[in-house]
Specification:
By secondary structure, this protein is of the alpha/beta class. It has 2 domains: 2-158, Rossmann fold (3-Layer(aba) Sandwich); 165-282, N-(1-d-carboxylethyl)-l-norvaline Dehydrogenase, domain 2, CATH 1.10.1040.10. 52% of the residues lie in helices and 14% in strands. It is built from 12 helices and 9 strands. It has helices at 10-21, 48-51, 64-73, 94-107, 120-124, 136-149, 161-189, 195-203, 210-221, 230-243, 252-269, 276-282; strands spanning 2-6, 25-29, 43-44, 56-59, 85-88, 110-113, 116-117, 128-134, 150-157. α1 (10-21) links the parallel β1 (2-6) and β2 (25-29). α7 (161-189) packs across α10 (230-243), α7 (161-189) runs parallel beside α12 (276-282) and α11 crosses α12. It is globular, with a radius of gyration of 20 Å. The termini are far apart.
């Protein structure tokens, strides 16, 4: 299959390489220069518009503004293949996903939202969990590619923005879990309980699961090397706040954790892993 790829950060490059390694013909573009051999068997093209001469195009840019600048302001969607399916795998706002869906419908381009759960090492292993939403036919057409980059596809509905709502809500839950562990450690350490012992207790009894185990380990070891930068985590909490704006009841946990992560950013932690929010909670003066 001819596959285009826009956005070759750590996540995007891993996904594009896996697609090329699986035998697909990959053409890619990135906002910053990329080595010609970055995708073995693939090619780097000069403009975003060239990427859309493909059967399927994946876009994996950092936020709404980046996608708007690359795809809409430059009109990269002006002349795609007639059979194209455009898959936006980035974490974007629900409102912008709705705008993109309407734009693609007006231009007769099949559009699928497919944000993912998984850090760069998971992307490299082809084990991402994919949330997909869009027309069933379009999802079926790209499912062989999803099978290359991910371990499972969860269909969220036929409206693309439904996948984006699931993604921002899921990331909100991760952030809440990180802060919950930090505050629990603050209580137990004040009484002399070793944080490893306490988090072992929690992850092996009441709170077994990938989020608690992975981020609990970071809290224990103090290893906050960025896998997902805190600045991007805060962006996702902002997206969750925006998505909740029309709800009849406010979301106090979201508001509190967003404020805490904002404080961590202001303290200079924006380029650390977003779990560094726990370090800020436990060591506010450091």
């Amino acid at each position: 299959m001819d596959v285009g790829f826009i956005g070759l950060g750590r996540m995007g490059l891993a996904m594009a390489r896996n697609l090329a390694n699986a035998g697909h013909r990959v053409s890619a573009w990135n906002r910053s220069p990329v080595e010609p051999g970055a995708i073995p068997g693939g090619r780097i093209v000069a403009t975003p518009a060239e990427v859309f001469d493909a059967d399927v195009v994946f876009t994996m840019l950092s936020d709404d503004a980046a996608i708007r600048s690359v795809l809409l302001d430059g009109d990269a969607l002006a002349a795609p293949r007639s059979c194209l399916v455009h898959v936006v795998a980035a974490t974007i706002s629900v409102a912008f996903a709705q705008e993109l869906a309407a734009l693609h419908a007006d231009r007769g381009i099949a559009y699928v939202s497919a944000p993912v759960f998984g850090r760069p090492d998971v992307a490299e292993a082809g084990k991402l969990n994919i949330m997909a939403a869009g027309a069933a036919e379009a999802i079926d057409r790209v499912r062989p590619l999803f099978d290359v980059i991910g371990q499972r596809v969860f269909v969220m509905g036929e409206e693309p923005a439904q996948a984006n709502a699931a993604k921002v809500a899921g990331n909100m839950m991760i952030a809440l879990a990180i802060e919950a562990m930090a505050e629990a450690v603050a209580i137990t350490e004040a009484q002399g309980v070793d944080r490893q012992a306490f988090l072992d207790l929690m992850t092996q009894t009441l709170f077994g699961g990938r989020v608690y185990e992975n981020y609990g380990s970071k809290i224990v070891t103090g290893d906050f090397e960025a896998g997902f930068r805190l600045a991007l985590g805060l962006k996702d909490l902002r997206l969750a706040s925006e998505a909740s704006a029309g709800l009849p009841t406010p979301l106090p946990l979201l508001a509190a954790v967003r404020a805490q992560m904002t404080a961590a950013l202001d303290a200079g932690m924006g380029d650390r892993d977003w779990s560094a929010m726990a370090d800020f909670t436990l060591n506010p003066g450091r």
